[in-house]
């Protein structure tokens, strides 16, 4: 089974940027579809971005123009680069691996990292 480790969260000011990392062990990130999800307090987990094994990306509307996803096969790591952050981006961010038929639906993913907190506040 693949294990995922999400990291890079923290406190950032509105308008700032942050890069999250998702490092895999027990499997190669370029074999899986890797999705980034987030869950704010009192809200359901939602998909943000997904990078599939062929290199295509799916974006949630909230991520378009602000977030990008990339993969470093040598480090077996997928990155979520976030910019122009605002308070609505505050959430626990999770990475997940799977072969989803619908890229940004959480239940389509088999393996999950532990989550990293992102707080956008002045």
Report on the structure:
- It is a single chain.
- The protein has about 120 residues and is mainly β.
- Helix content is about 0%, strand content about 50%.
- It contains no helices and eleven strands.
- It has strands at about 5, 10, 20-25, 35-40, 45-50, 55-60, 65-70, 75-80, 90-100, 110, 115-120.
- Strands 2, 4, 5, 6, 9, 10 and 11 form a seven-stranded mixed beta sheet that branches. Strands 1-3-8-7 form a four-stranded antiparallel beta sheet, with no helix packed on it.
- The protein is globular and about 40 Å long.
- The mean pLDDT is about 95.
Radius of gyration, taken over Cα atoms and rounded to an integer in Å: 13 Å
Global structural class: mainly beta
| Helix and strand run | EEEEEEEEEEE
Number of helices: 0
Largest sheet: 7 strands, mixed
General form: globular
**Into which percentage range does the β-strand content fall?**
over 45%
* Secondary structure: number of strands: 11
Low-confidence stretches: none
Mean pLDDT: 95
> How much helicity do the residues have?
under 10%
The N- and C-terminal alpha carbons lie at a distance of 40 Å
């Amino acid at each position: 089974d693949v294990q995922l480790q999400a990291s890079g969260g923290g406190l950032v000011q509105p308008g700032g940027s942050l890069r999250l990392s998702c490092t895999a062990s027990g499997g190669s990130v370029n074999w899986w579809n890797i999705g980034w999800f987030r869950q704010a307090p009192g809200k359901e987990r939602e998909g943000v971005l997904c990078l599939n094994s062929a290199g295509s990306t799916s974006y949630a509307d909230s991520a378009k123009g602000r977030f990008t996803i990339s993969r470093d096969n040598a480090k077996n790591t997928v990155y979520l680069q976030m910019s122009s952050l605002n308070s609505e981006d505050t959430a626990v961010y999770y990475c997940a691996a799977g072969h989803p038929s619908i890229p940004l639906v959480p239940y389509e993913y088999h393996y999950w990292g532990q989550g990293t907190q992102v707080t956008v506040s002045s």
